[in-house]
């Protein structure tokens, strides 16, 4: 932690800060600059909150934290990319697995058909929502456990592992019984009660970035899961909220190289929620592969126009088949495969 | 719902949209314009998602929704401001109640002293967190039920109603036993499981806007509570996330007149979390009163420099007493009182 | 400047950075931390750009600048608030002057009538645009020099000093001949050629914050003017661009206390452009006074519904008269006057 | 234009709006809905500003514009992508040209060497700044005309066309004498005086999106140039300002498919300014190719660590050579070539 003093700070102010820092258990090191002085505070394990108060002392301009707030998610702790295995499907290696399926599980017939179609096209994991967090209380909220059973039937039928969202700590045990991978949606990125419970399970977690979550906070949300003992976390960039309204969200494609630079966790991209329109899905999926993502998750429905949710951004099986071919070409171009 | 056709749309495209809309149960009305045609779709209770698909039909430029997604929160449904009563303290009328207290409940002694001090200065409700949602898993997470008991002791001692946060649907019953008003924090604004449960209780809810929640989504989150039967919702603007980093969040002061224009729900302001620095609390509190807020919630601690959380933005009892006087003057200037 | 090393940085990396910093003319001071080491670099007047490259050296995590990029605008250089005098109207003291008038100068009759009306209500300066920067090339761009002559006629008639926008370095001399205060619009906040020329004149400049300008960049834009020798700069907060669309822009009311904390320059607020709707102008104007702004600039038109530009956010003279009374009450409540 | 009435609007309100619209020259069409009524207004060429006032009439909820504010830039007017030819280098066709070079022109020797190096690697156009818009008045502002002469020398030496920024309407003629393509920087995206002048020249313009410019405003800025008669505009996405600080800006990669959907203008990507760090340049450049960009502009310097500006995001010639190979592979994978 570095304390930056004001240009007009008096010697007394500097001494007061040094004294307070020592009280708090730090070893302070003063650097006398040409324009202003700074104080380096050495010493870990000090409560950040009580330190913050130094920022409000007379003569202090501001405080600069040095330690990263996340540890287990950090690349400094584990330099090589982690491989997260979901029933044999590996994220973080040379292969780029595709997760596909409808937004909502609507019926057994619909999800089984979806599973068959996306499997035939080459998808490795089936997605589908049984519990749907919806902005409006009047929108379809999902079939709940019934939907989980339909997902299990689709797995039975096709052999595809399944990935489904859990939105409520009360349902973790229930969802655990059926799913192969938990999905945490963007709205729950800071639902710490949920993250903590998932950290205590032994199934992988697909953690979606929130609409206004910084990459640092994203890694700290992952840290909640990791610090409980569950190391199988896959990050998912799905667009952030900005002033631009032409797309549903703004896909922060740079998130991939930044995460690769700072963390060992694999990261995938969701082009469906970020773009919000089916005509943008192909272009964004290809850019996801090219930028180095470890996977892509795409909304596909046997009859997209009749989808109960997210219809506008859902593509058809025919569109998906063509896109799989296009993504494969890009994967090869960047030295990976699908 | 208005369907805007492209300038180069063919007659066939128009006819297809009309046909599809009729299939979906709408009465379509075509308006032939100079540059492009638009189709007005009349007919409520149609699933929004399946309609969205019209936006992807050939010849369609975009779709404009007309109905507001919230109803019970709307001023169109109830033109006069609602008065929400919390144990006799009224929000939404001529009086502007102040909620004050520390960020976290640290000990019985600390919260009782805080309660006595803020009561003496004129605060009407005591705030204090027993369950703390923290960005880092390594930060203090609150005393839990123990903290709720300390809050109850403070109420016993001072007669001030209490307001405390609930972060997990599993704890709604527990918190219910102790609190006079639930607080939903910014991170839980779209924790719909939690909102639904609170809508089924008979205690008022202080609903904080999320960091990236639009005002429309804010009212829809309130709608989750209202639609379950609980009409006692107080909104709280606490700053949104923008590119500006000089403050912890950007206080969206305009949220107050906008909400007053669109909804009957009372709205208060949190100058502590928005500014993030104690030297900004007074200026922002006074602007809150002047802009028409129905209350202010302020972090006050007997010894702010030793607060376990949010120390930098917490003010001292002396500061608070002075600020109460300043806010009173502004309240009178705008025809209200404290 | 502080160089933060990675946790896994080797000794060699540290030594390389120290050596490179010395080459660049710095005195490096290493602080050995528990988790990672940091290097304080002392020595001013080093080109920032060439230093940045240290951030890309092996073993370096990131670089933290310490010096503020602005000097003349800084409160550290001049602790007391500057009073900027515009033909006898003082910004930055106990009085809070109001600037009012139409968005565009439409005709001599319109601007003279506007001037008479706002003067009668108590405004101290007349605003009106002769050169209009418009997002669309097909919108009214202003009357140019003709408009300046009308403004001069209005000043002649009423004695009110005038404030008008200059958008093009080519027109600085022309506008200089007529105006009492230059206005730099939000779109020109980083039009450095224009700022530099205005810095070489001897007339005050009303500098509006850009839609996506941080407060630090805002002060650096002011620095362009100050560093050329013109010390008479008044800042104007007029809303920033965020994800919220209920208002035209998001009024960053906290900008006022932040600027007061960091700079000696006076700052005013524009509630018309930030809110974008006339029904929000009164609430925002009162909050501006309460938060400590040194002035308010309001769009007023004799017949707002017929205004050629910004009609939706322009208020009528009757509305303005009432608002003046309301603002006066708030000014008194915060110990100032109008 | 669609006028949406409030649910509680009275018949009188509706009639008043209809009457006012007719006064303004519209043909109004009322659609009576279940919950609320809407009025379609047919009739182009009406001043948008005076219409806005309808939004403030009693009983009106809001107004929805239907016409796009840009015409010449629209794909509806010209469905096929425009090919913009810069001295034989074509943007918008099957080939993806790369523009490369240093941020600033520092010396004749530096820019000639840069030109030789990037040409050898396969770049088709040389970039380099002679006039630099800098946030700080104390930063290097460019060599001005001297820099333009060095650029001309580099062209002479290598045959590469040159692209350089113009920041001031006063310098358009000067820059015209030397450059093959004007660059308009992000800060000047709404410098309409400059755009208008460039629209009157016969040289192509590389128009960079502003930090907070929506895609619609971006196309309207292009419209300023097109409407003056210059059809040779190339758009450039270079990152927008968001809350995320891990990158200098947030590359809005979706801008490419959105622009392709709405406009016939070619669009390229700048991975250097968006990422802000050289280690992100390769990943972002490849994603640019994959997403369908018509070109990439990259900062390359013979000795990046010694660059006078943007050093941290500038790559070396060796890095550039390798990246060219990687981009070529991705270009082939998406059916294009370099």
From TrEMBL, chains A, B, C, D:
Keywords: Transferase. The keyword Oxidoreductase does not apply. Residues 1-68 form the DAHP synthase ferredoxin-like domain. It comes from the Bacteria. Coiled coil: none annotated. Residues 88-324 form the DAHP synthetase I/KDSA domain. GO terms for biological process: aromatic amino acid family biosynthetic process. Pfam families: DAHP_snth_FXD, DAHP_synth_1. Its EC number is 2.5.1.54. InterPro entries: Aldolase_TIM (IPR013785), Class-I_DAHP_synthase (IPR052899), DAHP1/KDSA (IPR006218), DAHP_snth_FXD (IPR041071), DAHP_syn_2 (IPR006268). One of its GO terms (molecular function) is aldehyde-lyase activity. NCBIfam families: DAHP_synth_Bsub (TIGR01361), PRK08673.1 (NF006421), PRK12595.1 (NF009239). This is 3-deoxy-7-phosphoheptulonate synthase.
């Amino acid at each position: 932690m570095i304390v930056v003093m004001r240009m007009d700070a008096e010697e007394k102010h500097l001494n007061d800060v040094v004294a307070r820092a020592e009280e708090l258990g730090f070893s302070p090191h003063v650097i006398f600059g040409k324009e202003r002085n700074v104080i380096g505070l050495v010493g870990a394990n000090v409560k950040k909150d009580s330190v913050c108060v130094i920022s409000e002392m007379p003569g202090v301009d501001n405080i600069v934290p040095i330690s990263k707030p996340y540890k287990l998610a950090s690349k400094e702790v584990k330099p090589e990319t982690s491989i997260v295995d979901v029933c044999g499907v590996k994220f973080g290696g040379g292969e780029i697995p595709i997760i596909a399926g409808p937004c909502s599980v609507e019926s057994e017939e619909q999800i089984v058909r979806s599973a068959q179609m996306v499997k035939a096209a080459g998808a490795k994991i089936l997605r589908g929502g049984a519990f749907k967090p919806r902005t409006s209380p009047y929108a379809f909220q999902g079939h709940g456990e019934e939907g989980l059973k339909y997902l299990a039937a689709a797995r039975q039928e096709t052999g595809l592992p399944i990935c489904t969202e859990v939105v409520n700590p009360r349902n973790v045990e229930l969802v655990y019984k059926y799913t192969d991978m938990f999905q945490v949606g963007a709205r729950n990125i800071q639902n710490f009660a949920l993250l903590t419970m998932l950290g205590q399970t032994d199934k992988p977690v697909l953690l979606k970035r929130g609409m206004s979550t910084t990459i640092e906070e994203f890694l700290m949300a992952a840290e909640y899961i990791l610090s409980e003992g569950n190391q199988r976390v896959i990050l998912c960039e799905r667009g952030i909220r900005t002033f631009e309204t032409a797309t549903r969200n703004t896909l922060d494609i740079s998130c991939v190289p930044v995460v690769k630079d700072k963390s060992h966790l694999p990261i995938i991209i969701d082009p469906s929620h970020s773009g919000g329109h089916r005509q943008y899905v192909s272009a964004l999926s290809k850019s996801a592969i090219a930028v180095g993502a470890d996977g892509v998750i795409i909304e596909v429905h046997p009859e997209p126009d009749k989808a109960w949710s997210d219809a506008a951004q859902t593509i058809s099986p025919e569109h998906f088949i063509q896109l799989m071919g296009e993504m494969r070409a890009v994967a090869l171009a960047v030295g990976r495969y699908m």
